Request: fold
Amino acid sequence: MHTMSSSFVYDVLPEGSIRLLELLDAQNDSETITFNLRTYRLDDAPDFNALSYVWGANTNKRQVRCINKITPDGALLSITPNLFEALPFIKAASARPIWIDAICINQNDLKEKARVVPRMGDYYGLAKDVLIWLGPCGNDSDLAMDVLNWMGFPKKRDGLQRHLCGTNGPLNTAYLAAILSVLQSKKKVTIVQLDLKLLGLPIKDHPLWLALPALYRREWFSRLWTFQEAMLARNATVLCGDRTIPWEAFTQLGQDMTDTELLWINQPSGTFTNLRHFQWPHNNGEWFWQYLLGSRDKECSLKEDRIYALLALAPETLRRKLKVTYSDSPDHYVSVYRSAAGAFLEIIPLDPILVAAHSLGKPTALPSWVPDWSLKTASTPIPTRSSAGHSLGFLRDWAIDKLNENVLRVKGVQVDQVREVIDDYSWHWPDDVCGIGGPADKMLKWLDRCLDLTRRTVNVEEKYKDVFWQTIFAYLEGCNQFNFPPDPVLGLQAHRIRLFENIHRVPLANTALSSKELQALAPTLSYLGLLWRGKVFFSTMQGRIGFAEKGVQVGDSVCLLFGLSKLSILRSRADRMHSFHSQAYVYGLMADAGAALGFLANSKMLVEKMQDFKIC
Reply:
């Protein structure tokens, strides 16, 4: 028995090196979990595996015995319970040395972390196999993993079938064949018990229909670092308890069960990670911006890691520009986000950066044009086909101020000013709610107030309904996207009818729209629920209407920043600078504001109105 009271001391990790651990003993108690931690030049390192896992709670840490050059007799190292529980299964699954971040990086050395994090892509990319640890068995995970292996690997079926369909087994061969048949057909199943029976599937309350979704909703899928690790892996294996399955088969079967809705049989609500994202190649950073936007719902412990946890998926030019730093200061992430935004400006247009920058909960220390990646909420951007600044794109000029890195200088013109805002309602489609004062009633009243504001602003009786509904839909001339109804008034009328029926629980008789027409418009109207999330309706001083993100105020400037496809809402400050609020849709200006405002025909007027906006 080893008796140790000293804490483990790391040796120095030279530049271009990697620490790998070799598990010597792993018997699930601190006296017998022992490993040897060795340092290699990365170019000379032996073949190794890497672990992808969730750190889990930092409380109730467990201790293991660690050996290196400094402590050849071993010393104690604390690790999280989730990692401790994984070690015996890792030893069984990996004959090679393995890289595990919590152990192979000195977590107390911020400088070492800053050097190693940019190399994570090399570690996971060079690993012969990435072991994805989903956690110990639980919630019938053994059943789920066995069924997945049965479906994915015909050569394993005989052995698994004896276990799954034996005397006390949870399934029978007919059930397994029926599940496989559904997956091969790629047709969606319904949750109606009769339909399950007709398809030969297990009943709705069968344990399998709880086990499978529980497996694909494990915490691993909600973490940000694990997403990058899986994307970088050349080869990966999923471990859950003592069961394993190749990652490629695991994701494909999971996506097939999502598409056929087998995962929803017992749990019709809730969501699953889109497994197709893991199947896309990261193409040397081509999809990095999409990863950033699409992963805002994923978790990480440090705000800085919203950027760093995906950095290995970024283009090489961006990786060179972003210096990884860590600090004990709680506001350190602000400088990280600001530096990242400055680096983004050199490789992508300003438009998507400003779309991501809007948020009401941003700290005041963060410049208004810099996205706050620590906030999970994000609104739906205005449709990308708009090209308000297209014809003036040759005047595009934006750059970080040389004297103040918080300031973004952008050339453009102020085209209007916000006059009135209707911002006391948050759009959402009312499901199963009715009655006076209910959500459908509130939406109808909001719609009527916006319609009235349009009538008062546009002041052309026969035109205002068209203008209103086209604005509500972010309509663009010549781009009839999202199946916008050919007759805007028909769309408005359809929406009002659906709301009225929702409120009063009765269908309207003798309406101008048949039930078939209403049904055909349903997808169009559903799109509005996405587009208008977090948006508000406003009018302008020059008789226009539009919408922007919630928080727009009377007096805000509607600006055309050269080279941007959308208009921008800026707010003047006492120091002659501006803060960016959001991008905006303004009726009549989205196809080409430069032409609509006469700037193309009158270059003198353009020069007179041009400004150098300092956005901070």
The mean pLDDT is 84.
